[in-house]
Here is the input.
Amino acid sequence: VSAPDARVDERALRRTLGTFVTGVTVMTTTGGDGSPVGVTANSFCSVSLRPPLVLWCLARDSSSLDNFTHAGGFAVNILGEHQAALSERFATRGHPNRFEDVAFTRGVDGAPLINGCAAHLQCRTLNVAEAGDHVIIQGEVVAISDWGRPSLVFSRGGYARLRPHPHMRPLAPEPYFLTAF
Ligand SMILES: Cc1cc2nc3c(=O)[nH]c(=O)nc-3n(C[C@H](O)[C@H](O)[C@H](O)COP(=O)(O)O)c2cc1C
Here is the structure.
């Protein structure tokens, strides 16, 4: 608890933002040599349906910044509930090879689509805007696939699984479909 005019303490801010529950994505693209690049991000959000737009935020000090800002596109790998270890691996600074033993296919622009995810969105990068210590990467969705698996949940700095609410509308059934725009 703090007074409304108190200076926003960074640790308190992180902790408070952690109450906003999210899914977890691994954002992927390709390096200049075609090598796979990936980083864990929960700043992903939907923006517009017509046209289909999404955004996410990447730290300006990320070793992947140049790859994401120079590539023409990226893929959103929405992690399934069994992929918490992948989330941790793609969030590890200086990991020697994040893609070691990770099965993936390549999307339309070569961005890795990691096997076993809840869903994939393939995006064309529309805009990169500076915002404090991050950049906001905006993309237009060009292909989607929903694999019908339950999504991994991130809350208060830890991982969780979905559980239907006992009294409210139940979780939607998980259909399998694959669509390309
Ligand atoms: C659940 C979770 C969500 C994260 N979300 C973001 C994010 O949205 N943006 C970001 O820049 N870093 C985020 N991070 C931290 C990055 O994954 C991590 O700093 C990064 O992978 C470090 O490696 P790199 O900068 O060399 O790519 C997140 C980490 C975790 C565990």
